[in-house]
């Protein structure tokens, strides 16, 4: 299994020029790297400018018809899974804690987005993770169980292999307070147990689970070698070309 390194640029950078410069630096420096799958998730508006590295979107719309994909329609401001697929996008981040918080994305909406993305052939990166409060009140397992079970409701065994789960403790995102190796390892095991309960052991063992939350070039290697993750979701550090390249090269 190739290590998956996903860059989540969030709402950055502010200009097309800066976006192109960042993308090109990463593309040039990662040329020829075979054992790592690098995916760049820029804002929607930059997606069509890029080629030469795998792309992911940071969000997608759902058209609500269960297992029937409406290809387009009257949904002002939204972007469909088909539009992304047509641009050559391979992955889509769904259920990021910032979307849950600022866009009120619910587990039900996340589930619809996942199912429709899978139908079109996009690979969802489902983000899950507990808040500080949930962690301190011993609710981590419950939170992960609800988020994963609800998000994957109705997702068939045959589709599950195309899903990536990103364990992103909310308290670790953008704070510099990254999750410890031991805690990450125990969360990854919990997530595999939840998937095993939902599907089976084989799917649990082969599902790609990545970690996100204040990853940088100094802590990258310990996550990959000591926690059982299959990759990393990198936010802030992916906006600095040198640092992001260092993350990739440290593997
Ligand atoms: C993220 O938002 O997905 C993320 C991992 O951010 P950061 O690396 O900045 O904590």
TrEMBL record:
A GO biological process held by the record: glycerol catabolic process
Pathways involved: Carbohydrate biosynthesis; gluconeogenesis; Carbohydrate degradation; glycolysis; D-glyceraldehyde 3-phosphate from glycerone phosphate: step 1/1
Classification via Pfam families: TIM (PF00121)
Binding site for substrate: 8-10, 174, 214, 235-236
UniProt GO MF annotations: triose-phosphate isomerase activity
Enzyme class label: isomerase
GO cellular component, one term: cytosol
Catalytic activity line of the entry: D-glyceraldehyde 3-phosphate = dihydroxyacetone phosphate
Gene3D superfamilies named among the record's database cross-references: Aldolase class I
Top-rank taxon, per record: Bacteria
This enzyme's EC code(s): 5.3.1.1
Main location, first listed in the record: cytoplasm
Location of the active site: 96, 168
CDD domains for the chain: TIM (cd00311)
Record's keyword terms, sorted: Cytoplasm, Gluconeogenesis, Glycolysis, Isomerase
Localization per Swiss-Prot or TrEMBL: Cytoplasm
PROSITE patterns with a match to the protein in the record: TIM_1, TIM_2
Sequence similarity: Belongs to the triosephosphate isomerase family.
Cited HAMAP family: TIM_B
Known function: Involved in the gluconeogenesis. Catalyzes stereospecifically the conversion of dihydroxyacetone phosphate (DHAP) to D-glyceraldehyde-3-phosphate (G3P).
Assembly mode: Homodimer.
NCBIfam families named in the record: tim
Protein name: Triosephosphate isomerase
Gene designation: tpiA
